[in-house]
Amino acid sequence: MPPPHTGFELSSKIFKLLNEWGIEKKIMTLTLDNVSANDTCQDHLKNGLKFAHDVLDKIRKSVKYVRGSESRMIRFKECVSAIPDLNFTSGLHLDVTTRWNSTYIMLESAIKCRKAFEYLKATDHAYKYCLSVDECGRAERICEFLYPFYETTNLISGTSYPTSNLYFLQVYHIQCVLMESLRSEDELLRSMGEKMMNKFKKYWEKYSVILAFGAILDP
């Protein structure tokens, strides 16, 4: 669905489709991936990401700087070309406030191009947002930590296959990831994990067992 992703626009679209499909009186639950409009895990993931604010802010500013003008984009592509074996086909991505998984995509694309950003820093004195070695390491750890959430979101948001049988097991998988983060020696990941686990428990200590039926009945 194209923007805007407001609560009104989303609800209107959902009701329209339910009526078209003739299931408006049969629907029992809805699984949504948009956070700000639907009050799901996104707000809590974003709260956890506040611990990584400095690194994410520099990456965000780096992407905005490069994409801010055609000449900068051309210059950045020249920097990419100067780095052997660097694949830039996916481009740079900027995250959006309504979709937390776009933060993962932004991180992944920027990390792949970190050497190009270093080259840009050496050749463009106006560029001030290059990550330090330590910050690059933190960005990589954050990206690795977020990957299971990104993967799960894509899996249960699929539209070309059934997802009710996947949902309960994927939530359990997320719980395992969070529990593992609590045992991490990395203070950043542990802090993120603690914040996210508190929210996870708040919303999942009490849930409808109907969410497990799809997994139980899955042949």
Automatic annotation (TrEMBL):
PANTHER family with a match to the protein in the record: BED FINGER-RELATED, ZINC FINGER BED DOMAIN-CONTAINING PROTEIN RICESLEEPER 2-LIKE ISOFORM X1
Any coiled-coil regions, as ranges: none
Source organism of the structure: Arachis duranensis
Protein name as annotated: Zinc finger BED domain-containing protein RICESLEEPER 2-like
Domain of life according to the entry: Eukaryota
Annotated hAT-like transposase RNase-H fold domain residues: 157-219
Entry GO MF terms: DNA binding
UniProt-listed Pfam families: hAT-like_RNase-H
SUPFAM superfamilies in the cross-refs: Ribonuclease H-like
